[in-house]
Amino acid sequence: MRVIPAAVVGIDMNVAFAVAAALGVDAFVVAELLPGIEAAMVRRMNEQIRERIDND
């Protein structure tokens, strides 16, 4: 994960590709699908962070 105070910026793509390779997932598939998955994941994680900050 790439993070800054109180926010997630993205995931470490080098690690994501290494994990995918270890699991036998084709790098082309990862390159095609991961950006959309990353965007949704980062958006939701940041929403949860904001909710926690607002509730404090």
Give the secondary structure arrangement, pairings included:
Blueprint lengths: L1 E3 L2 E4 L2 H10 L4 H29 L1
Antiparallel strand pairs: 1-2
Fold and architecture overview:
The chain has one domain. The chain is elongated. The chain is of the alpha+beta class and 56 residues long. It is 70% helix and 12% strand. The protein has a two-stranded antiparallel sheet with strand order 1-2. The chain is built from 2 helices and 2 strands; from the N terminus they run E-E-H-H. A hairpin with a 2-residue loop joins strand 1 and strand 2.
Summed up:
The protein is α+β, with helices and mostly antiparallel strands and 56 residues long.
- The topology string of helices and strands comes to EEHH
**How many structural domains in the coordinates?**
1
Basic shape: elongated
- End-to-end C-alpha gap: 24 Å
Biggest sheet overview:
2 strands, antiparallel
Find the structural class using helix and strand composition.
alpha+beta
- What's the arrangement of strands in the largest beta sheet? 1-2
The average pLDDT score comes to 92
Fraction of residues in β-strands? 5-15%
Helix content: 55-70%
The parts where pLDDT drops under 50 for at least 5 residues are: none
- Cα radius of gyration in angstroms: 14 Å
Please give the number of β-strands.
2
**How large is the count of helical segments?**
2
Core attributes:
single chain, 56 residues, alpha+beta, 2 helices, 12% strand, elongated
